[in-house]
């Protein structure tokens, strides 16, 4: 693997303030759909698949938007190319295990803030309702999708709390363990 093939080489590093800020020192992760950039039909299909994933309603077809070698990166997990079946099934099982923790999860709104043939960046507002509590909790994030030459996702990054997350120290260990071992708990469908 050459240096340009490593996940770090194509990890999205969006300038959150530039893409979402209202003032020089602020970022606004709340989506404003009326400001959204219009996507090509191919890119819209990718975003639709991702929002179904976040809403715990993905199909195996939705998982096909990911490249064979892809990375999923959020504050709690990092799944890299060492086992793509685990990587794809982790996404699917994260959404299938979600109903065990949440009474519901639904995408309330999105705003595409940047789109090129190599990358799609959008603000996402996901509403979670925890089981037993039944209080709606909207969560805003900035989702960055780095695309390969075939238009498939090679890096899926989900940034919360207005900051990027590093891949160093104790946080890296926790994220890798979660990404590597989550499928042992969630038991993905054998078809993946």
Low-confidence segments, ≥5 residues, pLDDT <50?
82-89, 173-179, 181-189
Broad structural category: alpha+beta
Strand order of the largest sheet: 2-1-6-5-4-3
Number of helices: 6
Described by strand count, sense and barrel closure, the largest sheet is: 6 strands, mixed
Number of strands: 6
Question: Helicity level, as a percent range?
Answer: 25-40%
Distance between the termini: 25 Å
How are helices and strands ordered from N to C?
HHHHEEHEEEEH
In round numbers, the mean pLDDT is 75
Radius of gyration: 16 Å
Shape: globular
Strand content: 25-35%
Description:
The chain has 192 residues and is α+β, with helices and mostly antiparallel strands. The protein is 33% helix and 29% strand. The chain has helices at residues 7-10, 16-20, 41-54, 60-63, 84-101, 169-186; strands at 66-73, 78-79, 102-116, 119-130, 137-147, 153-159. The two termini are 25 Å apart.
């Amino acid at each position: 693997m050459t240096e340009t093939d490593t996940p770090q080489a194509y990890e999205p590093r969006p300038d959150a303030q530039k893409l979402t800020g209202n003032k020089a020192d602020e970022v606004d992760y709340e989506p404003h759909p009326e400001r959204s950039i219009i996507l090509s039909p191919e890119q819209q299909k990718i975003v639709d698949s991702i929002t179904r994933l976040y809403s715990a309603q993905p199909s195996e077809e939705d998982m096909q938007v990911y490249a064979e070698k892809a990375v999923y990166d959020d504050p709690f997990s990092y799944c890299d190319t060492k086992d793509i079946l685990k990587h794809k099934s982790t996404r699917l099982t994260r959404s299938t295990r979600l109903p065990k923790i949440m009474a519901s999860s639904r995408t309330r709104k999105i705003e595409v803030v940047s789109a090129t043939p190599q990358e799609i960046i959008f603000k996402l507002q996901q509403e979670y309702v925890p089981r037993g509590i039944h209080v709606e909790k909207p969560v805003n994030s900035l989702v960055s999708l780095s695309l390969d030459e075939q238009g498939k996702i090679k890096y899926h990054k989900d940034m919360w709390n207005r900051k990027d997350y590093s891949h160093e120290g104790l946080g890296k260990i926790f994220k890798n363990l979660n990404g590597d071992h989550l499928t042992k708990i969630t038991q993905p469908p054998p078809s993946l």
